[in-house]
């Protein structure tokens, strides 16, 4: 029991150092663990991988993954997701997809965080069709879609001028009983009003009211301006 607690305590320390940006110190702590005969576990390694990826040191993160595998510790969904995120942050979507495919080959099923990370990366790179392929894959096989998935795709569609596609997806969002967060709702409401899709804007506004979101003057102003634009002044 003492050995397990020691690993737990070291991992907390590694996480705290990484959170504070002291990654090199965190690596030193892991080296100290090994010298004391305490092998870091998958949580410890994943913490280091995530920290390196967020700082743009993806190559170093991959070295850490190689090390853990050589020591007989298999990466889990958190480890792989951190690597996927690292490549996405560097706009290396083909490499991110490679890691994504590898984890599936290894029998490690991506979770919704992994999928959302990939979808966001594709959308950021204006590769909407590939993002939609993943969306359809989730719809068929799981995991359960969440508001982040929908919001990311909807924002990208409007930014790329794919308004009709966005409206179709929006209908699916409403049918699923989910609604994007307030920031995304305002972006969508504004886009719908500016492009003349007032009926869809009204549906979104009503869904926002029914969802319990706290609405200030902004959505009302957007909707009024949209109605005036198409001549519905009364």
Whole-number tally of structural domains: 2
Beta-strand proportion: under 5%
Main β-sheet, in a few words?
A: none
Topology, number of strands: 0
CATH class of the largest domain: Mainly Alpha
Give the low-pLDDT segments.
Answer: none
Rough outline? elongated
Write the CATH fold name of the largest domain.
Answer: Serine Threonine Protein Phosphatase 5, Tetratricopeptide repeat
Number of helices: 13
- Architecture (CATH level 2) name of the largest domain: Alpha Horseshoe
User: What class do helices, strands and sheet pairing give?
Assistant: mainly alpha
CATH superfamily of the largest domain: Tetratricopeptide repeat domain
Fraction of residues in helices? over 70%
Order of helices and strands: HHHHHHHHHHHHH
Question: Radius of gyration, Cα only, in angstroms?
Answer: 22 Å
How far is it from the N-terminal to the C-terminal residue, by CA? Answer: 73 Å
* Average pLDDT figure: 90
Overview of this structure, please?
This protein has 234 residues and is mostly helical. The protein has two domains: 1-114, Tetratricopeptide repeat domain (Serine Threonine Protein Phosphatase 5, Tetratricopeptide repeat), CATH 1.25.40.10; 166-234, no CATH class. 76% of the residues lie in helices and 0% in strands. Helix 5 packs antiparallel against helix 6 (93-105) and helix 8 packs antiparallel against helix 9 (147-159). The longest helix has 18 residues, at 2-19. It is elongated and about 75 Å long. The mean pLDDT is 90.
């Amino acid at each position: 029991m003492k050995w397990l607690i020691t690993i737990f305590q070291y991992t907390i320390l590694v996480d705290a150092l990484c959170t504070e940006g002291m990654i090199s110190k965190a690596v030193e702590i892991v080296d100290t663990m090994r010298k004391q005969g305490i092998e870091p576990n998958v949580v410890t390694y994943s913490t280091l991988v995530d920290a390196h990826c967020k700082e743009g040191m993806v190559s170093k993160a991959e070295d850490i993954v190689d090390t853990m595998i050589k020591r007989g510790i298999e990466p889990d969904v958190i480890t792989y997701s951190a690597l996927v995120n690292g490549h996405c942050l560097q706009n290396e979507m083909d490499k991110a997809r490679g890691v994504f495919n590898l984890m599936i080959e290894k029998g490690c099923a991506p979770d919704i965080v992994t999928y959302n990370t990939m979808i966001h990366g594709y959308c950021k790179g204006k590769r909407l069709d590939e993002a939609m392929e993943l969306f359809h894959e989730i719809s068929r096989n799981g995991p359960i879609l969440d508001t982040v998935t929908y919001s990311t795709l909807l924002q990208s569609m409007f930014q790329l001028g794919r308004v009709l596609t966005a409206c179709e997806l929006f209908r699916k969002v409403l049918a699923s009983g989910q609604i994007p967060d307030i920031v995304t709702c305002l972006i969508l409401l504004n886009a719908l009003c500016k492009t003349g899709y007032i009926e869809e804007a009204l549906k979104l506004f009503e869904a926002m009211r029914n969802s319990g979101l706290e609405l200030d003057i902004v959505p009302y102003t957007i909707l009024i301006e949209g109605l005036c634009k198409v001549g519905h002044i009364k």
